[in-house]
Amino acid sequence: MTGYEGVLFDFSGTLFRLEPDPAWFAGLTDDRGRVLDDAAQRELLHRMTVPVGLPVPMEGAALRTWHARDLSSADHRGAYLHVLEHSGVADASERERLYGEFSNPLNWTVYADTAAVLRAARDAGLKVGVLSNIGYDIRPAFEREGIAGLVDEFVLSFEVGHAKPDLAVFRAATAALGLPPEKVLMVGDSAEADGASRDIGCGFAQVEPLPVAARPDGLLAAVRSAGAI
Fold first, then answer.
1. Please, are residues 90 and 31 in contact by the beta-carbon 8 Å criterion?
2. Which of 38, 103, 154, 168 has its CA 20 to 30 A from that of 21?
3. Which residues have a Cβ under 8 Å from the Cβ of 185 and sit 6 or more positions away?
4. Is residue 1 pLDDT above 80, yes or no?
5. The pLDDT of residue 51
6. What is the pTM of this model?
7. Contact 101, 107 (CB under 8 A)
8. Phi, psi of 200 (to 5 degrees)
9. Are 150 and 130 in contact (CB under 8 A)?
């Protein structure tokens, strides 16, 4: 037995995945009036969801906003509007529209085994938390799926003022569960961002942020392999 008494789950690429409707991109053109093709749309999605690194060149105020994007809703909006502008979306109103789609929690798709894993954790007597680097409230996504009641604590970076891999956010999250770090398993898709939890004594289980249809039970397998359920 591992002795875990709680588990923290990342959101994006772990419990849910953002899988845009192709209609979001219909008719988008660059600054030369060319329609963004499929490759450009795939690259745009990557840039809007990549967990670490710089998706487009940035300096000065843009760079400062990027680094603060998960610490406030205003910086999140500013950072991703900049990404859209420098990813070929020429029209400002279209950038605003797309940002609205990307930041709508009801546009996220739940992984097939998310509900089962959360229920199994609760049935095992574990405290359950969601720890996410995010600039907006994701609780409505859980409410839509009827699983919000399976989560004891939501620790969202823009609400607590710290973001992964800052160790302060892991300390805040384990404290929210009322547990010492060594009693908590962190589950996420990024070894760099989520895996930093190991530096304060948490366990870590990694999942691949595959498309929802391609990962029917990857979350369940990862949590079981870690011995948490």
1. yes
2. 154
3. 2, 4, 6, 7, 8, 202, 203, 204, 205, 223, 226, 228
4. no
5. 67
6. 0.92
7. yes
8. -110, 5
9. no
What does the pLDDT look like over 144-155, one tens digit per residue?
999 999 999 999
Three-state SS annotation for the chain: CCCCCEEEECCECCCEEECCCHHHHCCCECCCCCECCHHHHHHHHHHHHCCCCCCCCCCHHHHHHHHCCCCCHHHHHHHHHHHHHCCCCCCHHHHHHHHHHHCCHHHEEECCCHHHHHHHHHHCCCEEEEEECCCCCCHHHHHHHCCHHHCCEEEEHHHHCCCCCCHHHHHHHHHHHCCCHHHEEEEECCCCCCHHHHHHCCEEEECCCCCHHHCCCHHHHHHHHCCCC
Q: Using CA atoms, how far apart are residues 139 and 144, in angstroms rounded to an integer?
A: 9
Terminal C-alpha separation, the chain = 10
For 147-180, give one letter per residue: b (16+ CB within 10 A) or e. beebbbbbbbbbebebbbbbeebbebbbebbebe
Distance CA 227, CA 166 (A): 26
